[in-house]
Amino acid sequence: MLKISNTVTIPSDDIEFNFVRAQGAGGQNVNKVSSAVHLRFDIRASSLPDFYKERLLTFNDQRISSEGVIVIKAQSFRTQEKNRQDALNRLLGLIQKATVVTKKRKATRPTRSSQKKRMDRKHQRGQTKALRGQVKGW
């Protein structure tokens, strides 16, 4: 079972694991041991609340297919168990990232005094630069 929040959990039945051989160099073990993990999670068929499903299906991420299936490949570690845990952590992070509701930005205007201070600083800076020029009359 994967705990998303205090009230939301994903049962183990909703998550499918396939163990495959990892890519890249690996020495003697690489041709014999299937240590990489393909995690598959079908969003539509899962027991997640509708809010989570909607947010995940509209979330723009290359790991989510057009059919609504999340596919995560974990092969960083040498053991199946560590790769499995890594894939679960990445699934958890993806779900949490997709369901964060950002605050709407409230448009504000700078105060009159801050505008005046800014213009005064600009004028002072211009005066400083003007004094660096050639002295006239030489």
Walk me through what this model shows.
The protein is elongated. It has a domain at 2-95: Double Stranded RNA Binding Domain (2-Layer Sandwich). A hairpin with a 5-residue loop joins β1 and β2. It has helices at residues 50-58, 80-98, 112-130, and strands at residues 2-3, 9-10, 15-20, 36-42, 69-74. The strands form two sheets. A three-stranded antiparallel beta sheet has the order 3-4-5, covered by helices on one side. By secondary structure, it is of the alpha+beta class. It is built from three helices and five strands, in the order ββββαβαα.
The strand order across the widest sheet is: 3-4-5
Categorize the overall geometry: elongated
Give the helix tally.
3
Based on CA atoms alone, the radius of gyration comes out at 28 Å
Q: Assign a percent range to the helix content.
A: 25-40%
Distance between the termini: 85 Å
- Describe the oligomeric state of these chains in a short phrase: single chain
- At the first level of CATH, the class of the domain at 2-95 is Alpha Beta
Short key terms for the protein model shown above:
138 residues, Double Stranded RNA Binding Domain, 3-stranded antiparallel β-sheet, two-stranded antiparallel ribbon, 34% helix
Question: Could you give a short description of this structure?
Answer:
The protein is an alpha+beta fold and 138 residues long.
Secondary-structure map:
Layout: E1 2-3, E2 9-10, E3 15-20, E4 36-42, H1 50-58, E5 69-74, H2 80-98, H3 112-130
